[in-house]
Amino acid sequence: AIQHRLWPEVDRLVKQQVAMARMGIGECGTGWQLFAEDGEMKMYRREEEVDGMVVDPLKAVHVVKGITGHEVCDYFFNPKYRYDWETTLEHMTVLETISDDTLVFLQTHKRIWPASQRDVVFWSHMRKLPNDQDRDGPDIWTVVNNSTESPEHPANVGKCVRIYLTVCLLCQTRVHPPKDGAPITRNNVSCKITYCSVVNPGGWAPASVLRAVYKREYPKFLKRFTSYVINQTKNKPLMF
Ligand SMILES: O=S(=O)(CCO)c1ccc(-c2ccc(C3CCCC3)c([C@@H]3C[C@@H]3c3ccccn3)c2)cc1
To answer: Ligand 1 atom closest to Cα of 210?
Structure first.
């Protein structure tokens, strides 16, 4: 395949982020606190500050019945669905289509009082990975989003403070074949979703406000996104 200008960085980040996402919370170092739980969804964060700014890493694990990892990643990656599930999004533009699995986005997010409005420029890459633990199991799918520069959209020029993020959505499909050898339906599949994110707010914002925003928005985001995928796929054929 022809390599594009971001390929070396994309390949390095994907390998690094997938390795971390696959580690159990116990192996990810110390200091992870479970801060939200809802059924199968467990959300952990670590309290971390860089230059006095809250950058709390987040790791969420969720198991959702009836959808596959390919479907979850497709609805997360594809810009045409984003306004449907990303509630804090004010505006989104695809700045560059580098390849069919690598896009560069500019997003502005709704202002969260009293912090000033934020924007972000990031590349987004979707990839299928071989399931090296279970050779004949379904493939693993991932989307990695990582902040990048855009000469046409320099940081902190307009009203928005530029944030910096690294996000990894890792999806492992599980098939529970029916006893009687019947064809696989949505009742026989589930998806283990691991969502890791580190968001640097870019400019100062009160730690208490940011932590309250993270605590409120992340559980809402993951539940809303997964419900959206369940609804969009329920009458469609399975996509592995
Ligand atoms: O997974 S993605 O790549 C999906 C593509 O959209 C992504 C996720 C989250 C963000 C994001 C951007 C800004 C902010 C804050 C920071 C200071 C003021 C605004 C937040 C805070 C964490 C809270 C938040 C969490 C989840 C969803 C939305 N809001 C998050 C951006 C992209």
So the answer is: 17
Measured from the CB, is residue 57 less than 6 Å from ligand 1?
A: no
pLDDT digits (tens, 9 = 90+) for 13-22: 999 999 999 9
Cα–ligand 1 centroid distance for 168 (angstroms): 13
Question: At a CB cut-off of 8 Å and minimum separation 6, what does 155 contact?
Answer: 121, 149, 162, 202
Residue-wise pLDDT for 197-215, tens only, equals 999 999 888 899 999 999 9
Percent helix, strand, coil in the chain, to 5, is 25, 35, 35
Nearest ligand 1 atom to alpha carbon 122: 3
Whether the CB of 218 sits within 6 Å of ligand 1 = yes
pTM of the model: 0.96
Structure letter (DSSP) for residue 176: -
